[in-house]
Amino acid sequence: MSRPYTMKKRAGQQAATRQRIVEAAIDLHSSLGPAATTFSMVAERAGVQRHTLYAHFPDERSLSMACSGLVYERDPLPEAASWRGIGDRYERLAAALSDIYAWYERHASLMACVMRDAEHHAPTQEVMASRVAPVVTGWREVLGAKLNVKQRALLPLALSFFTWQTLTRDGRLTQSAAVRSMIRMIEGI
Asked: Which of 82, 124, 126 is nearest to 103 (CA)?
């Protein structure tokens, strides 16, 4: 008597393979950057053949979207809605920049590579436009609501990954000192 065939085991194996591929790509994106990561490298790191990789991800865009989706599923970018209820402008900026800078710290190597590659790599630009830009737009709307024109002009500088990196990595400021410095810059204008 034959056993009825079910897709459960095969589907589980496919999901596990897909997960290994995405994890391998994220690891490579964090060390080499998306632009320098090839499908061959991902396949080797994931322990799969290239045709298996292509069966799950037919192109670089689909792999990049899966990688960013997993990163943001595990640790979402801070949402501006959580700061909307903070009435005091200084306290709102402090809470927001603390949240944003903490997220940057947790994802520093990945963000450094992604932000660098977003300058010239179309799939990375697309991921940034679809996943990150709407969140950052929300940050600017909520945080800029009670700022004057000059202060709003400085807000993108305070929100920038590169600013955080310059202050904390290069300038060796603590997170809280970096937050205070950016608030003083905005408030002082």
From this structure: 82
- Mean pLDDT per 10-residue segment, the chain (189 residues): 66 88 98 97 97 96 96 96 94 97 98 96 94 96 94 97 97 97 94
Tokens 């003083």 -> residue = 184
Nearest to 105 by CA among 176, 34, 185: 176
Number of Cβ within a 10 Å radius of residue 4: 4
What's the DSSP call for residue 4?
A: P
In a 13 Å sphere around the CA of 149, the CA atoms on its Cβ side amount to: 0
Task: Give yes or no for a contact between 107 and 44, defined as CB atoms under 8 angstroms apart.
Answer: no
Q: State how far Cα 96 lies from the chain centre.
A: 16
Residue 32 structure tokens: 């080499």
- Confidence (pTM): 0.90
**67 vs 36: CA distance, rounded Å:** 15
